[in-house]
Amino acid sequence: EIVLTQSPGTLSLSPGERATLSCRASQSVSSSHLAWYQQRPGQAPRLIIYGASSRATGIPDRFSGGGSGTDFTLTISRLEPEDFVVYYCQHDATFGQGTKVEI
Amino acid sequence: QVQLQGSGPGVVKPSETLSLTCTVTGYSISRGSYWAWIRQPPGKGLEWIATIEHSGRTYYTSSLKSRVTMSVDTSKNQFSLNLSSMTAADTAVYYCVRYSGYYIDYWGQGTLVTVSS
Question: Is the pLDDT score of B36 beyond 90?
Answer without folding.
Answer: yes
